[in-house]
Amino acid sequence: MRQNPLLFAFLVIALCACGGDDSSPSVTDDILPSHLLVDGDQLLIAETGANRVLAWVDEELDIFADASVGLAQPVGIAALPSGNIFVANHGNGMLVELDAKGAFQRTVHTKLGDNRLLSVAVRSDGSVFIVDDKGGFGSLYRVMLP
User: Fold this and answer.
1) What's the rounded Cα separation, in Å, for the pair 132 and 140?
2) pLDDT band at 20, cuts 50/70/90?
3) Which domains does the chain have, with CATH numbers?
4) Rounded CA gap, 63 and 54, in Å?
5) Given CA atoms 108, 112, 115, 119 in this order, what sign does their dihedral have?
6) Closest by alpha carbon to 143, among 111, 103, 105?
7) pLDDT tens, 27-61?
8) What PROSITE patterns does the database record attribute to this sequence (predicted)?
């Protein structure tokens, strides 16, 4: 897949400029936006340092999910075939499943431990894969869901 760096730079500038008043969420470098997922009409943004995922829809930036649903340093986001979303938590090594509106569905224990989970990906058949940072050397695992 070919990527357009100019479009990406424009998107980053546009996102950083969003926010408006002090009560609106905004994306800044000090909270470490770490992963993006386009899901339908919304762009989901994992913010590791803020323990949340933001949703950008129609030029509006809102909180999609946060620590209240179990997010702990989210570092990856993937869409499931069902329409739900998996968020990979670096902080506790777990996957959090959310529905399309950001409501908690379940937690999947990866047994990797804290500060090891780096990413999550889901194939069209529903197979879930994660990347682990074991001692600085990444490993790929397939997660068997209950």
Assistant:
1) 6
2) very low
3) 5-143 (2.120.10.30)
4) 4
5) negative
6) 111
7) 555 567 889 999 989 999 999 999 999 999 999 99
8) PROKAR_LIPOPROTEIN (PS51257)
- Residue carrying structure tokens 């546009």: 14
Beta-carbon neighbour count of residue 69 at 10 Å? 18
d(CA 84, CA 98): 6
- Sheet with 85-89, strands from edge to edge, namely 74-79, 85-89, 94-98, 104-109
Q: Within 13 Å and on the Cβ side, how many CA atoms surround 61?
A: 23
State the Cα–Cα distance between residues 11 and 115, nearest whole angstrom.
Answer: 29
Please say whether the beta carbons of 142 and 128 come within 8 A: yes
pTM above threshold 0.90: no
Q: Is the pLDDT of residue 1 over 90?
A: no
